[in-house]
Write a structure and sequence with these properties.
Elements (H helix, E strand, L loop, with lengths): L1 H27 L23 E4 L7 E14 L10 E17 L2 E13 L12 E14 L2 E8 L21 E9 L5 E10 L16 E8 L6 E16 L5 E17 L3 E14 L2 E15 L8 E9 L9 E2 L24 E13 L2 E11 L7 E2 L5 E3 L10 E14 L3 E12 L1 H4 L7 E15 L1
Parallel strand pairs: 1-22, 13-15
Antiparallel strand pairs: 2-3, 2-22, 3-4, 4-5, 5-6, 6-7, 7-8, 8-9, 9-10, 10-11, 11-12, 12-13, 13-14, 14-16, 16-17, 17-20, 18-19, 20-21, 21-22
C-alpha cells in the first residue's frame, strides 16, 4: 500500500507540474497573435496592471478602501537542495487598506496583511511565506506643497530596489517603522528623502514588530534635471546595531555606513544603461568594515523590429571576505534589497560574495504582454567566504582552506506578464539552475527547476 500511495503521489505531482507548464504556455500564447508595440518591459520590480476604481456615491469623501489579492502556485523539484524532494504549494496574499483624510494637509493610512503557504509542512515554510492577519502599514502623513512628513510603518523603495526595496515578489513584503521626510522642488524632478527607521520583523503567529530602537537611517536623493535623459540617485545609508559579535568572539556595537549612487538613463542609438556602485565602511565590534558592490546594465532597443525587442547585458559584483586580515570584514552587507530575479528566477542567492554575468532578452508582443528570457553565470567573489541566500543566510560554509573553485552554477529563465481586462495581472515563469562544481562538491549538487503561475487583482473603493 505504501508503494502504491507513493506512486499515486508521484503521478499527481507530475500531472500538476504539467498543468502548471501548460498554464505558462497559455500565458505566453498571445505573443504569437500580435505585433503591436508595448510601452513597458518585464524587468522586475515593475508593477503591471491598473487598480480598478470602484465608486460608491454614499461613501464619505474623506474615506477610501483598497484591496489586493494575489494567488501564486509554485513548484520546486529539489526543495532545499534535496534531490527528488519535489514541492508544489500555493502562496496566498491579501492586503486590505483604509485611507482617512480628515484635512487637506493630513492623511492616515492603515493596511493589514494575511499570507499563507498552503501545501507545505510548517517546518518547511520560510519566514517570508506566512503572516497571519497583521499590520503591514500604518502611518500619518502631513503634506504641504512639495513637503511630505510621515510617522509610523510604511514602505521604502528606491531606484531598481537593489539596495533598498520591499521585495514584493515574496509573500511577506518588507516595511519599516520610524520617521520619514520627503522634500522636492517645483519641477518634481529633484527631491531628497530622509528617514530614521527599523525594519519590521515578521512573526507568523504574533504581532510583527521591529527590534529595540531605530537602526536603519538614510538620505536618498533624486536628481532628474541636471543630466539630459538621465536620473542620478546618490545615497548615504547608516546601519547601527547595539550588539554584534566580532570574528574574535568579542561583543560590541555596529556602525556601518554605505555611500554610493545609482544612475540610469538613455543614450544615443536606442541604448539604455543603469549603473550602481557603493562602498561600505565602519566598525563591527572590534572589526573594521571594508566592502563594496557594483552593478552595470546596458541594453539596446531594436526600434525597427517588431515586438520592441530589447537585448541587454548585466554584470553584478559584491565583495566577499578573503580572511587575509583577521580584524577586517569584507563581506558586502546587502541590507534590504528586492532580490527576486536578481540572480536567477529561482531566487537561491543573495547580493553577498557573488559575481554574475547575465544576458537578458525582453519582448513586448502586445500592449498587455511582456516576455523576459535570461541566462546567467554565477560565482563567488572570494573562495574563502561562504555562499549566501536571498536573506543573507549561509547556504554553503566555506572550508578553512577555501573552496576549490568559485563556480556556483548557471541558470536559464523564462517569464511572462499579461494584463487581462486592465486589472487582472497574470504572471508565469520557469527557471532552471545547473549547479556548478562548488555546489556539487559541497552536498548542494541537485539541479533545481522552479516554476510558478500567479494571479493578482487590485481595486480601490471610494466616492
Amino acid at each position: 500500500m505504501t508503494e502504491v500511495s507513493q506512486h499515486i503521489s508521484t503521478r499527481t505531482k507530475q500531472h500538476f507540474r504539467m498543468q502548471m507548464l501548460a498554464l505558462i504556455g497559455i500565458c505566453m500564447t498571445p505573443c504569437l497573435m500580435s505585433y503591436a508595440q508595448a510601452q513597458v518591459f518585464a524587468d522586475y520590480p515593475q508593477t503591471r496592471g491598473r487598480i480598478e476604481q470602484l465608486k460608491q456615491e454614499d461613501f464619505p469623501s474623506w474615506l477610501s478602501l483598497d484591496m489586493q489579492i494575489r494567488l501564486r502556485t509554485e513548484d520546486q523539484t529539489s526543495y532545499q537542495y534535496i534531490p527528488g524532494n519535489s514541492r508544489v504549494y500555493e502562496l496566498t496574499r491579501v492586503y486590505g487598506g483604509l485611507t482617512l483624510q480628515p484635512a487637506s494637509y493630513l492623511t492616515g493610512y492603515v493596511q493589514f496583511i494575511d499570507t499563507h503557504a498552503l501545501g507545505l509542512p510548517v517546518k518547511h515554510v520560510a519566514a517570508n511565506m506566512r503572516d497571519v492577519f497583521d499590520l503591514r502599514q500604518g502611518y500619518l502623513e502631513y503634506h504641504h506643497d512639495n513637503i511630505r512628513l510621515y510617522a509610523g510603518r510604511r514602505e521604502l523603495k528606491y531606484g531598481d530596489e537593489r539596495v533598498v526595496g520591499i521585495s514584493d515578489f515574496t509573500n511577506n513584503s518588507r516595511t519599516w517603522d520610524g520617521f520619514f521626510g520627503h522634500f522636492g522642488d517645483k519641477t518634481g524632478k529633484n527631491k531628497v528623502d530622509v528617514f530614521s527607521t527599523s525594519v519590521v520583523t515578521v512573526h507568523p503567529t504574533s504581532l510583527d514588530k521591529h527590534g529595540a530602537g531605530l537602526t536603519f537611517h538614510g538620505v536618498y536623493g533624486t536628481i532628474g534635471s541636471w543630466i539630459p535623459n538621465s536620473i542620478l540617485q546618490p545615497f548615504v545609508l547608516v546601519r547601527a546595531l547595539p550588539r554584534v559579535k566580532s570574528q574574535q568572539g568579542i561583543y560590541g556595537s555596529e556602525i556601518e555606513t554605505t555611500f554610493g549612487a545609482e544612475m540610469d538613463g538613455r543614450l544615443p542609438g536606442s541604448f539604455e544603461y543603469d549603473v550602481l556602485g557603493d562602498l561600505q565602511r565602519g566598525s563591527y565590534s572590534n572589526d573594521s568594515i571594508h566592502a563594496g558592490a557594483g552593478i552595470v546594465k546596458v541594453a539596446h532597443v531594436f526600434t525597427s523590429l517588431p515586438w520592441k525587442l530589447r537585448l541587454g547585458g548585466e554584470y553584478d559584483y559584491a565583495t566577499g571576505n578573503p580572511h587575509q586580515n583577521p580584524n577586517r570584514i569584507s563581506t558586502y552587507d546587502q541590507q534590504y534589497p528586492s532580490n527576486h530575479n536578481a540572480f536567477g528566477l529561482f531566487d537561491l542567492f543573495g547580493f553577498q560574495n557573488i559575481r554574475e554575468r547575465r544576458v537578458n532578452l525582453d519582448l513586448a508582443p502586445t500592449e498587455n504582454l511582456s516576455l523576459l528570457f535570461q541566462g546567467e553565470a554565477l560565482g563567488v567573489s572570494s573562495r574563502f567566504d561562504s555562499v549566501y541566500d536571498g536573506v543573507a543566510g549561509v547556504v554553503v560554509q566555506a572550508p578553512a582552506h577555501g573552496f576549490a573553485t568559485n563556480n556556483i552554477g548557471d541558470g536559464f529563465d523564462a517569464s511572462a506578464k499579461y494584463v487581462f481586462h486592465n486589472y487582472w495581472v497574470l504572471n508565469a515563469g520557469v527557471g532552471h539552475f545547473f549547479p556548478g562544481s562548488l555546489m556539487a562538491a559541497n552536498s548542494h549538487g541537485a539541479p533545481l527547476t522552479y516554476s510558478y503561475f500567479s494571479i493578482t487583482y487590485r481595486f480601490k473603493l471610494g466616492k
